[in-house]
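ARCHIVE CARD
Drawer: 12
Card no.: 0347
Subject: one protein chain, sequence and derived structure
Cross-reference: see card 0346
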Amino acid sequence: MPTPDVSAHLAALYASAEDPWNTHASPYEQGKFAQTAASLPRARYRCGLEVGCGAGALTAHLAPRCDHLIAMDCTADALVTARARTIFPHVDFIQGAAPADWPAQRLDVVILSEVLYFLSDDENAGLAVRIKEDCAPDCDIILVNWLGDTGGAIKGAAAADRLTARLADRCQTITSQALDGFRIDVLRQG
């Protein structure tokens, strides 16, 4: 879960603007989301989890690929916007943070976009446990991380490497590519 300072910062951002990063209109953000959806190895997933859905812009790209999608965010105002802008009957929006509020469904895809650098080392370890124990054996895990300064204790690439190392005994890396300011890693649990 984000630290209290990060949670307060995110809450303040979403209280002042429904889409503080302009994710629904920014060509950069929309390009990143299209690349994220294109990186999914399978055409269709039974049940997916998007951690840190924010205003729901990436959710709109993921929903057509899932029979059921759970979009999670720790900020209530972000979820209000996501629910209003992303109307798919098979998407459930829940307030919470991973790994503490991990859903009970058996997931076959997990998307962690721009969230890993908010997690402490213990939370990163807990996330690895949730993926190993609660996801389907062939679950795809998509990591999307900003390559610039995150303003936090850990940068995006290092946070992705930390989780990838923890999953190495169960997951293989299918692809890892640096794009325009961000990196996408695709792992598959085996």
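Annotation on reverse: The radius of gyration is 15 Å. The longest strand covers residues 135-146.
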